[in-house]
Amino acid sequence: MQKIKENVYFVGAIDWNRKLFDELIPLPDGTSYNSYLIKGSEKIALLDSVDPPMCDVLLDGLKKSGSDRIDYIISHHAEQDHSGSLQELIKNYPEAKIVTNQKCKSMLVDLLLIPEEKFIVINDGETLSLGDKTLKFIFTPWVHWPETMCTYLEEDKIFFSCDFFGSHYATDELFVIDEKKIYNAAKRYYAEIMMPFSGQVIKNIQKISDLDIEIIAPSHGPVYRDIDFIVNAYKDWSSDKVKNEVIIPYVSMHGTTDKMVEYFEKSLAGKGIKVKTFHLTESDIGELAMALVDAATVVIATPTVLMGPHPNIVYAAYLIKALRPKLRFISIIGSYGWGGRTVEMLSDILSPLKAEIIEPVIIKGYPKEDDFRLLDKLAEKISSRHMDIS
Ligand code: FEO
């Protein structure tokens, strides 16, 4: 248990060894599930629980807190890393009521089979008194599920933001100390979790802009005392500004696509464009997601397998589409031996993005002089488009 302010404590769990989230997202720095205990003069509230495998850590922390009861469990979000220990909590604290919004209640009933009578349903902007402390509930939909909400502790000016502003970062330090490290972890988190909802991120930042906030306490990673640090980072990432950068996710089976990427990267760099390449059989997809936050252009590079793109490229293209980055331009380069439908298949996957598809360069066999000239032309087009938007 760590103290944030008088009678406000962190009672969550640090997951140092977790390597993957949702069986999808790499966690190079582990993560934490932050649960907070607020002791008012009359009532005691717990904000969120922890991932079920770490429930014992939370229960132990609560025992050590000296509280023999919990009156309210505030549930900001139904995803199991915050709600998965609720059943165990209400067994241990049978008097506790779960306080949440209607949407979250329905999801908790569906996902965790929590009985209807355990809930108190609140509305957006409603307050709940703990005596000398007041909780104000702020609905913040789609950061990153439809039911997500936050709590503002009025007297202490603490904003409990759940996933919003979070970072997958395991640390003993309660507050952010090394801003550079947390910036990267929070950017990775934004890219993987929040980027598909950037419009809602902007709306929700606007919605909380009138609150007098001194501390932001998210449900993953350390607590922010410099709130401008994280709010300004979110404003930048969710804005429509793009950088003069090209990302090249690629796969090469026999060296041909490798050669094209190697040449194309130099051609782009010669025009002053920053290039980031990701060999998909080796790369951390979180790094790719982070690069997508800022880049103006993605060029997908693939060999032809079974008449289409390499399956790892199909996966990457699907992921890029799902993450909905603010890309302006997309192109495709690659080679084939006897034919295929690579461009059509990738264009179909990527078409929901609003980016312009610049004419791809698909060559037969190993690249020859004429093919290198085509890659130069593509680099020239990209450079010219970037200048137009800068
Ligand atoms: Fe940290 Fe959406 O759960």
Separation, N- and C-terminal Cα atoms: 49 Å
CATH superfamily descriptor of the largest domain: Ribonuclease Z/Hydroxyacylglutathione hydrolase-like
Count, helices: 12
Strand content: 25-35%
Strand order of the largest sheet: 1-2-7-8-9-10-11
* Protein structure class: alpha/beta
**What is the domain total for the residues?**
2
Which cofactor or ligand species appear? MU-OXO-diiron
Please state the average pLDDT score: 96
Which fold does the CATH topology of the largest domain refer to?
Metallo-beta-lactamase, Chain A
Q: Given this structure, which CATH class of the largest domain is correct?
A: Alpha Beta
Q: How many strand units? A: 24
Major beta sheet, specifics? 7 strands, mixed
Give the helix level as a range of percent: 25-40%
Tell me which CATH architecture of the largest domain applies here. Answer: 4-Layer Sandwich
Q: How large is the radius of gyration?
A: 24 Å
Low-confidence stretches: none
Taken from the alpha-carbon principal axes, the silhouette is elongated
